Amino acid sequence: MPVASPIRVRGTSMGTERMCRQRLQAPRSPGRASTDLFKFAGGRASGVARRARIAMYKACTRGGCSLSAITAAIDAAVSDGVDLISMSLGGPVEAFYDDLVAVATFGAERRGVFVVMAGGNDGPTASSITNVAPWMTTVGAATTDRVFPATLRLGNGVVLTGQSLYNIPFSQGAGTIPLVSSDCGKYGDLTPDRVMGKVVVCSKGEGAWAGFDVERAGGAGMISADSRTRFGDAVKAQPFNLPGLQLSSTGGKKLADYMSSVAYPVASFNFTCVTVTGENRAPMVAGFSSRGPNPIVPEILKPDVIAPGVNILAAWSGAASPSGSVMDPRRVEYNILSGTSMACPHVAGVAALIKKRHGDWTPAMIRSALVTTASPLDKDGRDIVDSGSAVGAAVMGATPLAAGAGFVLPRLAMDPGLVYDAGTQDYVDFLCTLNYTVEQMRQFVPELSKCERTIPGGVANLNHPSFVVVFDGRSRIRTLTRTVTLVSARPERYNVTVAAPDGVKVTVTPATLEFRWPKEKRSYSVPFSSEAGAKARPAGTWEFGHIAWENRKHRVRSPVAFKWDD
C-alpha cells in the first residue's frame, strides 16, 4: 500500500509521537471526555504542538530496531520533506563514522531537518549517555509533580509510600498479609508452596509484568523495590494486575530491614486510586536518565536538556498489554510510561512550535533556543535535584552532566533573544578536527576530497550553546570563542554575567554586546584559567558554572562544565 507524504495528509500515529505532536483524536466511547489509564491521570489530552502534521516511519519490530531500518526511515522522512525528526531509540555509542544513525542524522541536518533523540535509560552511570553527536538534540528525563500514591503499613507500624496504578480502591485496615521475598525474574522461584496467600516482595525491581507470575503461583499481592532509583518521587508507577506497589530503593531498604528483623513479617495495603499533583518537588532528574560526560567527544556537553519523562500518559497500541506481559489480557488506549523515550517527543513538540514561528531557523538555532532558555531551577525556584545522586536521606543538585542546560521552557524558547548558530560546514570542520580520514569523512560528505580546515582551538570551539573546559597538565588556561546572532525584531544590548567554581577565573570579552538590527552577529572570547594556588583537584574532577547574556527582556544562559585532567 503506498504511503502518503506528510506534506499532503494529516498523519496519525501510536505511542509517544501521537502524544506530543498532534491533536489527539483517539477512539472514544460516546460521551467520554477524559483520556486516562484506569481513571489515573484523567483529563483532556492535548499535544505540545497540537496542529502539527505527523508522519510515522517504521524503524523497529518486536525483535528490535535494525540499523538498516532506522537509517531507511530517516532517509524516507528527509525525502518526504519533514521539518523535524523525533527518535526515541538508541544503541551502543560508537565513533561517529561507525554510527549509521549519526551519519544518517548528519544527512538530515544538511537538509535543514531538526533531529531530537532520547539520551538513554542507563543512568545514573557516568558516560552512559547515547546519541551524542552535536547535530542532534539529546534529551534526558525528568519527573513531574504528578504521582499515584499507595501505602504499605508494615507489622511494626511503619508506613511506606510508593506508587501504583492498581485501580481497585481498598484498605486492609488492621488486616495483614504475610510477606515473602523472591527473585521474581528467576525461573522456578515463584512456586505455590512459597507464595500462596502471601505478598511477594520482588527485590530486583521487576515491573508489573511479574504480577501475572505471582498471581499464577497463588500470591495475594506484589511489592517491587526499584534498586536503581534513589529518591521516592522518581519511582515509576506500574499497572499491577493484583494488589501491588512500587517502592524506591530507600523504601525497599526499610522494608528489607523490617523483614530481616522479625520471624513472620506482615503488611497491609492502602489503595486510594487517586492522582496527586502539585505536592511533590519537581522537576527532578530521573534516576534512570543516562548521564554525561559525552563518551565520544567530552568537549560537547550532553544531554542538552531534560523534559518530562516519568509517569507520562501516552497513547498506546491495542496490540500490546499495558504491563508488557503476554499473559495480560487488558487492552488500553493510553498507558502511563517512563523513559527518555517519553521526554524526547515533548522536546520535539516544542521544536515544532519554534519551527512554526521561525520557519527560516536552522536546526542549530532551534537547539540553541531550547538550551539557552532552559531552567536549572524547579517549580519552586530551587535547584533541580538529581534523584540518582542521593546520599542517605539527602539528595544532590543536578549537574549539567545529568540535566544539560536544564528543564525545557516552551514559552521562553519561542523568543530566546540570541542564538548560537552552526551549519553543515561547521560540523564538517568539527569532524575534521577529530582527525577523521578522508574515507571516514566521506561517510558524511561523499563528495569530500580532503579536509580543508579544522576548528581553531579544537572541538570545544564549535559554536555550541554550552561550554566544556578541560584543564590538563599542559595548560591552566583555555580560551574559547562563540558567536551569537540577534533574533529579536529590535536593537538590543546585552551584558554578561558569569558563575564559576572557586579558583577558576572567567573573563568574557567584550562584556557588553550591542546589536543594531535583526540577524546581526557578534563574537566574544572567554579565557578560562585555573588559578595557581587554588585548591587541588584530582584528575577526573568535574565542576560547573554558567555564562549568561542578559537584558530586561531576555536571559541567554549557557551551562559551563569544567574538567581537570592529568
Summarize the structure.
It comes from Triticum turgidum subsp. durum. The termini are far apart. With 566 residues, the chain is of the alpha/beta class.
Number of helices: 12
Please indicate the percent range of residues in DSSP E strands (runs of 2 or more): 25-35%
Overall helicity: 10-25%
Distance between the termini: 60 Å
Total number of strands = 30
Radius of gyration: 25 Å
Query: What fold name stands as the CATH topology of the largest domain?
Result: Rossmann fold
Low-confidence stretches: 1-32
- Mean pLDDT equals 89
Specify the CATH homologous superfamily of the largest domain: Peptidase S8/S53 domain
Shape: globular
Which class of the largest domain in CATH terms?
Answer: Alpha Beta
Structural class: alpha/beta
CATH architecture of the largest domain: 3-Layer(aba) Sandwich
Overall tally of domains: 3
Question: Largest sheet, described in full?
Answer: 8 strands, mixed
Domain Peptidase S8/S53: 45-377
Domain Subtilisin-like protease fibronectin type-III: 461-561
Protein name: Subtilisin-like protease
GO molecular function: serine-type endopeptidase activity
